[in-house]
Amino acid sequence: MTDLMVVLDYVRPSYLNQDGQFVFTRTHAGKDLIKAISAPRVGLGLSLDDVDVTFAYGAVPPLDSQSKPKKITKKQGKPFFDKLKKHILDIRPKVILALGNTALMGLVGNVGIDKRRGIPVKIKIDDFETWVIPTYSMETTYMNANKEGLFLKDISLTKEFLEKGEAGLRKGVGKYELVTDFDRVKEIFTNILGLPPVSQPKYKIVAVDFETNTLHGEFQNVLDKNGTGKTVSAKPIILSMSWKEKQGVAIPLDHKAQNWPSDKLNQIYEWIRQLFMSDQWVVMHNGQFDVTFLKETIGLKYTKNVVDTLLMYYVGVSEDKDVPKGLKHLAYQYTDMGGYEVPLDEYKKKFLEDHYNNWLAKKEKEKSETGKNFRKRADYTPIVNEVDGDTFNYEWIPLNIIYSQTSICIGTRIRINN
């Protein structure tokens, strides 16, 4: 088994000399790639003999009128991509570093390197599974200094992956608590806000995040989009907080599985409002959404000391609108908690699949009893978010599953801020 396979996009005209000979290693891109592979400190520290370097599209693509390579389609690339996958089965690499859109398409089937770089993807070819880490091509980094910095972060991530494997990337998850006892909730806010008998807040900064039943806080007293005739409203369903690394708490709010008495829920909302309007520093990611949602749903009037890691990344790392700034991207770049969202994504996918399979089983039984035919997909009406008609509602996820993921998410915020 080879530890690392590097897959480049395609053979660029600059990789060939006037006689058509392959001279990639003598080019600027080739020399920089060798440095990224072999340099012990800023690179992977590997011997070139231990790395397999190949192309997703092993030829010069058709050129346009300006002698620039045209974009490669899946149909054009298929013969090359099939050959690439056969080569992967032959050498069975532990990790594949995919440089550029064509490499991403050949390995994963998708394009959009800006959105997918820096996030490891597991692929399966026949009986073999391995990981792909997408990043920018060398040439792309020359055109954008910010992307050069992100490329180096992806190299660092690849090094971490090679040394510790998938489990090593998630070793820093920590311990998290689901809080359903009101006295414990009171204790938490007493320490955060410095309420009596505590004389002052115990923590310098608190990371805060909310799970909601919709992205639209303005939807109040609307009809259930599943046609039940019930009236539903936007609401926060879980509050997650963390005040030190590898720690977090998740407090159910207006969640169907919690059922706080109205006076206790209103008190929790009052503590939340106090938190945002006090001198206590709060760290969030894309806090503008949460703050707006709280203003629309629980009457938050204003905020005082909120730090937003999304804005920190925008100002300090990249203003490029195409560079993803989501928390799951930053988790891979700045913490050992990358991939925290995977279990939740898998649950969401299975939930929707189970809903369809249950409907299908019911229709099959009905057919066997009545002889009535049905169309498997055409007659199926998917369940939708009751409030806004979207494809999912986080309130469908049981508390014992979602709480750990929301807590890990908030733990990532405090880690990034630190």
Based on the model shown, name its key terms.
single chain, 418 residues, alpha/beta, six-stranded mixed beta sheet, five-stranded mixed beta sheet, 42% helix
Topology overview:
Blueprint: E1 4-10, H1 28-38, E2 51-57, H2 74-91, E3 95-99, H3 101-108, H4 113-116, E4 121-125, E5 128-135, H5 138-143, H6 145-169, E6 175-178, H7 182-193, E7 205-212, E8 222-223, E9 231-232, E10 236-242, E11 247-252, H8 262-277, E12 281-284, H9 287-297, E13 306-308, H10 309-316, H11 327-334, H12 342-370, H13 399-417
Parallel strand pairs: 1-2, 1-3, 3-5, 6-11, 7-12, 12-13
Antiparallel strand pairs: 4-5, 7-10, 8-9, 10-11
Helix pairs in contact: 2-3, 7-8, 11-13
Description:
By secondary structure, the protein is α/β, with parallel strands linked by helices. The chain has 13 helices and 13 strands. The strands form 3 sheets. A 6-stranded mixed beta sheet has the order 6-11-10-7-12-13. β10 and β11 (247-252) form a beta hairpin. α2 (74-91) crosses α3, α7 packs parallel to α8 and α11 (327-334) packs across α13 (399-417). The longest helix has 29 residues, at 342-370. The chain is globular, with a radius of gyration of 25 Å. It starts with a strand and ends with a helix.
